[in-house]
């Protein structure tokens, strides 16, 4: 039997990041006994957890790629459930492909080894739509071939295989959730690793010209971050061991439209520069959420509403 969230001790790797910190908030709402976070603050921040820490969440600023860093946390806390969110943003794989791959594989292998030794009960592993690569058929369901185009995605695809194989070999209670493109408050807006929405808001506020790579028609299935978290917690008790599920909206928005909508909403009058397409950019991400919809019912935030909430949040945070 999979332990319920309520009353369990839960570890969130990468819990100071974008999705992880929203997950931490919800785990506290659901009365988890203890919520523990390991995050090396590569991209995450303590600010994302300010409220959670005031509610009792415990943050270890440490690196989950080292098995010993995880081991001492497991010695100090009797952990039942792990949500594995730790990763380094996709764009980092264009700078340091090897370490991007390593982070995505080492952390999960460390966790699977601990689980194999029965140190904890249940693993919810975060995959990504990036493992599918550009669509071979649409919409992409969970059976779509995995065809990574970056070392980030290759590491994620390898991690999926590791989870599935450990389940087959050792009957572990591990399963995979596969989010598509998330947006919303707390996504990183600084530097080269920023997501397209926060980056665009940042540029408008700082009078930096906006940029579109390629023709701008590359599309993504954008899902509001708290919708993702709700869906994950709703399928938590339903997915079989070794199973995976897309977390998506079945809706596509192209990057050009996202950037132009933000520009309009913020009254941006400046230039929108055209940049060469990035070689490994996945062109089309049209997801099927049929499996998810067959398992749970969940309300999706309309893109226009989510985008407005996100812009408002970033304007407040960036202006300080
Ligand atoms: N954001 C999306 O659109 C999206 C889409 C699909 C899948 N995902 C997956 O969801 C998960 C969370 O993504 P996110 O968008 O919140 O990313 P994020 O970068 O905001 O969060 C990841 C966190 O992991 C931390 N981290 C990195 N390396 C670490 C290490 N070695 N040890 C401990 N912590 C480490 C970072 O500091 C960061 O806080 C990831 O597994 C990602 O692949 C995200």
From TrEMBL:
Q: Which organism is it from?
A: Maridesulfovibrio ferrireducens
Query: Which domain of life does this protein belong to?
Result: Bacteria
Family, per entry: Belongs to the NAD(P)-dependent epimerase/dehydratase family.
- Domain NAD-dependent epimerase/dehydratase, by residue range, is 10-247
Signal peptide extent: none
State the InterPro entries in the record: Epimerase_deHydtase (IPR001509), NAD(P)-bd_dom_sf (IPR036291)
State what protein this is by name: UDP-glucose 4-epimerase
